[in-house]
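This is your field. Pick holes in the following sequence-structure pair:
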Amino acid sequence: MSKNVVVTGIGIISPLGLDASSTWDSLIEGKSGVDYIGSFDTEQFETHIAAEVKNFNPEDFLDKKEARRMDRFVQFAAVATQEALLNAKIELSNENPERVSVMIGSGIGGILTLSKEMEVLLQRGPSRVNPFLIPMMLGDMASGRVSMLVGAKGPNFSSISSCATGADTIAEASALIRKGEIDIAITGGAEAPICPIGIAGFNACHALSKNNSNPIAASRPFDANRDGFVIGEGASVLILESLEHAIERGAEPLAELAGHGATADAHHITQPAPGGEGGARAITKALNHANVSKNDVSYINAHGTSTPLNDKYETMAIKSVFGEQSKNISISSTKSMTGHLLGAGGALEASISVLSIKNNVIPPTINLENPDPDCDLDYTPNKPTRKQVNVVISNSLGFGGHNTCLVFKKFI
């Protein structure tokens, strides 16, 4: 018999704050985390802006020696996990470690470490390359390291599906709980892609905004003047449990993860399928899996990257699924404030979806000043909306044609 899955804890490291509460407060205030890149000189680059995590010192949270042997994305994951476990009020020493899994995804992995060590190789020779390079750059290492830190011995892996990574990893974790293989999953996504090769690569494929004159206005989903996404970094980790296990230990669920759906476009390596048909199928599958009516959806946390094609086709996907009802659903893209965290984006937006349910607030889409005629739904422009939020769907769409949708419900 399939088990119900609930969210009992959330941890966030984001460009808006070093924890969930500060991130949420900034979202509701409509603050942007986008600024000029401070971690390296961008003079030769087309893009000079990003959504960086500021004032993060890993040694404030982690053992100094261990922190130095982790790429930045793993540090983010480890710290977000600490907060999520505290938020869930769970003591893992009281749990069967084989019934606790860690599944934290990363779309790019340790590109920051790889970038730095390539410079070492070229300037100082192969003998000076960091002996921890390989374990630091592997995309699965957020899961691996966190499992070691908390002593979790259940299934341990990382999904990789570009910008859908975080959502896919959460979906896979929930599936193990539904099947009864585990009781607890520590799951989400982490990313730290802001480095010279990362910015150069995304510039080369014409994905990034070049609105360098006004960083906070650069990420503008669904606006007619959007010109690309703003890359971000950070992590979000959710504690998932079977409802049975959560009740048994006296936990207070934040929301139910009611279902998920995933599809492929089979169309193009970077562009979404025309009309957003792949995204539409993912939404439909997720609603069916969750046994949720289209009329019950309160809020859609859109993928909303601020790229010309994504926002247009995602709007078409929503209309395709919901028809006339799409005009009555609150939608927003929180990437307008956080930037695009790539493989961590779906995890961060899953957490935001849960917080929206908990607080009955829809975060805004900031910088939506000149709506694109092709994007004509309610995107919660510039100010939050306070309303009863019972069901939220969160869309994540990735390079390679990956489409994933998560459905969260208010726990009653």
